[in-house]
Amino acid sequence: MSDWNMLTLVGADRPGIVARLTRELYQLGCNLGEASMIRLGGSFTIMLMVGGDRSADEIRAALTPAVQEMGLRLHLDPVHGGLHQHLVPNLQVRVAGADRAGIVADVTEILAGHGFNVLELESDVAGDQERPIYIMNIQGYCGETLEVLEGALAPLGERGVSVDVSPVDVMIG
Amino acid sequence: MAILDILKLPDPRLKEVSEPVVSFDDALRAFIADLEETRLAGPAAVGIAAPQVGHPQRIVILDVSSRPKTPNHGHLVLVNPEIVHWEGYATGREGCLSVPDYTGNVIRATHIRLKAQDADGRESEFEMEGFEARAVQHELDHLDGLLFVDRVVSRRTDLYRRKVYKT
């Protein structure tokens, strides 16, 4: 059995979701690891590493009452590898443009073609209803230079998407 | 010379406010030599502050000169440093010898003016910008018992903060 389970949870946002779930997990004897929890649209989303000796079935059973009461959807995957596997990004790609289908695929295909490993991606749709704007911020690691990536992404500029590549400087002090 | 132990979070000594240096003597110079040896022995740190080795005095070593294209003042020993002027702000990613395996985004002033003494007590003033200014603000925080984890922001938070206009 793997030491960790990746718990995925989605549901209509409301106060108390995190408190309720983490209390249940604590009472089950689980440890919590790295997590990403964020409100997307009107939903609250959780990706959470749950450690300990409990199986996925035990975790699911313990969370079922809370999940049903709060109208959430839950998914568990055993995962290998533990904590302390952080990769530090060296490049940041900021994208903004009039919202249209295909922006993410266009940008990330080019990045992938240069071996860019996406470590974090967040995006928002801003602007107003008539003219929505898509804004995306990607941090990742790439062995190629900033200039090479800029050159590769430049054609997107001609199609109305502004793309900016900048270094991520990590200051260790 | 000796490599000193680096205190790690949550050691309560990292949260203490350090005392000003009053004696510029051989003991101070010997400690600074040890502090520099400790900085160089660990993962590539551009700076180190005395309280990180459990020595609660206002002493910082800083050297960002090895970074390409980075305006800098070379290797600096800063005793009783004080920021006398701030300008601009930017978000940047930081890590710390006292917080292994973690980096986070912190907002810092982009331009500062700094007053400090050297190991012999001579006063100087520095105009710093960018990466060097960020590094010195990070180190000076240690002297006041602050770690960068006390200042971490998410990029989203930062984004919204910039959109707030005072009316």
From TrEMBL, chain A:
It comes from the Bacteria. Residues 6-79, 92-170 form the ACT domain. It holds the Pfam family ACT_6. PROSITE patterns: ACT. InterPro entries: ACT-like_dom_sf, ACT_dom, UPF0237/GcvR_regulator. Transmembrane segments: none annotated. This is Amino acid-binding ACT domain protein. It comes from Thiorhodococcus drewsii AZ1. The lineage of its organism: Bacteria, Pseudomonadati, Pseudomonadota, Gammaproteobacteria, Chromatiales.
Automatic annotation (TrEMBL), chain B:
Keywords: Hydrolase, Iron, Metal-binding, Protein biosynthesis. The keyword Transcription regulation does not apply. Binds 1 Fe(2+) ion. The active site is at E139. InterPro entries: Peptide_deformylase (IPR023635), Peptide_deformylase_sf (IPR036821). Its EC number is 3.5.1.88. GO terms for biological process: translation. It catalyses: N-terminal N-formyl-L-methionyl-[peptide] + H2O = N-terminal L-methionyl-[peptide] + formate. Fe cation binds at C96, H138, H142. It holds the Pfam family Pep_deformylase. It comes from the Bacteria. SUPFAM superfamilies: Peptide deformylase. One of its GO terms (molecular function) is peptide deformylase activity. Its cofactor is Fe(2+). Belongs to the polypeptide deformylase family. Removes the formyl group from the N-terminal Met of newly synthesized proteins. Requires at least a dipeptide for an efficient rate of reaction. N-terminal L-methionine is a prerequisite for activity but the enzyme has broad specificity at other positions. This is Peptide deformylase. It comes from Thiorhodococcus drewsii AZ1. The gene is def.
